């Protein structure tokens, strides 16, 4: 009695577990007919227990999945497997389909019990739908990358290339297999490939965005062209890099245009200098004539003393030294002017900006005098050196000073005051400011830097535009502000030369 009661309790426990497991459990005889099914499996298919017992597993399997299912059953019967797992579609009683994963085993007969099939069935419809959506999304993304008219690529977390769109393949002439891993190096110029590879390894190891300019072989004409490659990492929720996505842009034509623009700007700057020299012709003549007049006067004095037989050796020596000094001075003026107007490449050296200011003020001295402009210098001593082209910085200062003079001559009955200042800006850069008491800027403070904009009757409208380009080429900034109570202030900054005390 006790044994029967224990057996009944055990069977009851198994039956309870069988029903409450939350997963479909079925048994079928060797022919495939169901003889046991828990309520979970019944609910999956919408059949009652008695209805299921009239069916086989083949009857409830979707027609297109039956062949694969029966092949696995055959392997089990032949002893090639001990069990199998299959993902297949079941057809419900109402005709609807759902995906399930079935783990199936053939239980051998024993003790007079015939062999039977035992299976655990899990509904995986939601997972399959999610996978379908993911595949559709990946397909849409792939179609998008193949449609975009730009070279796109991706790499795994270790930096090995795993995909390039058709634009990359068409450009380089390489196949998808050839560019995988590090195969992309085949199309990179030999002078760029090692440095680019090092930069890419550094980006992958640090996780920082990647960007590099390099020369890439274009298959269409077998020419190396300048391109820029950029990439960003994709991270998971924990911040780990799981993928790199990048692009390659051909900027060869843009770089050529930039070089042409730079050449044009250099030539425009020289034309502007020549124009300014024309405006300063009187000042230049005056600066050259001064030492030449001194040479002439000293020479005439020597000739008179010679005629009177009154030229002592000491007097002659002093006269000749004066003539040499004045000749050297005239030669230096001409050399500065020649350097200023000649067509020469920019040459950046460490400069004392105060020296540059004094040189330009000397050149404009006559203009200041003739236009009755009072000059005030506020030059900070011992400024750190700047790295710049002397001629280009002279051109900027000359343009600002001449503009200030012209702005003040346009106003009557007002003191004409010009301040030139040098100091250290809050940013740590060297700052130069030219302040006048002229007509001011009004609402044109920024517009004055627009090419061909001018308030002068005979102006080109290029001076300030060129000046801003020159300052920016030095890594600085040029801007304008109103002066109180009258006039304008033009200021520019220049970075301190590396190694210069600040």
Task: Explain this structure.
The protein folds into four domains: 124 residues, PAS domain (Beta-Lactamase, 2-Layer Sandwich), CATH 3.30.450.20; 103 residues, Beta-Lactamase; 90 residues, Helix Hairpins (Orthogonal Bundle); 157 residues, Histidine kinase-like ATPase, C-terminal domain (Heat Shock Protein 90, 2-Layer Sandwich), CATH 3.30.565.10. It has 14 helices and 17 strands. The strands form four sheets. Strands 2-1-5-4-3 form a five-stranded antiparallel beta sheet, with helices on both faces. The radius of gyration is 45 Å and the shape is rod-shaped.
Per CATH, the class of the largest domain reads Alpha Beta
Question: Main β-sheet: number of strands, strand sense, barrel status?
Answer: 5 strands, antiparallel
Number of strands: 17
Which range does the strand content fall in? Answer: 15-25%
Estimate the helix proportion, in percent.
40-55%
Q: What is the tally of helical segments?
A: 14
What's the shape?
rod-shaped
Count of separate structural domains: 4
Q: Which fold does the CATH topology of the largest domain refer to?
A: Heat Shock Protein 90
Helix/strand/pairing class, anyone? alpha+beta
Alpha-carbon distance between the two ends? 104 Å
CATH architecture of the largest domain: 2-Layer Sandwich
Radius of gyration: 45 Å
Q: Which regions are unreliable across 5 or more consecutive residues at pLDDT < 50?
A: none
Side-by-side strand order of the widest sheet:
2-1-5-4-3
**Overall average pLDDT:** 83
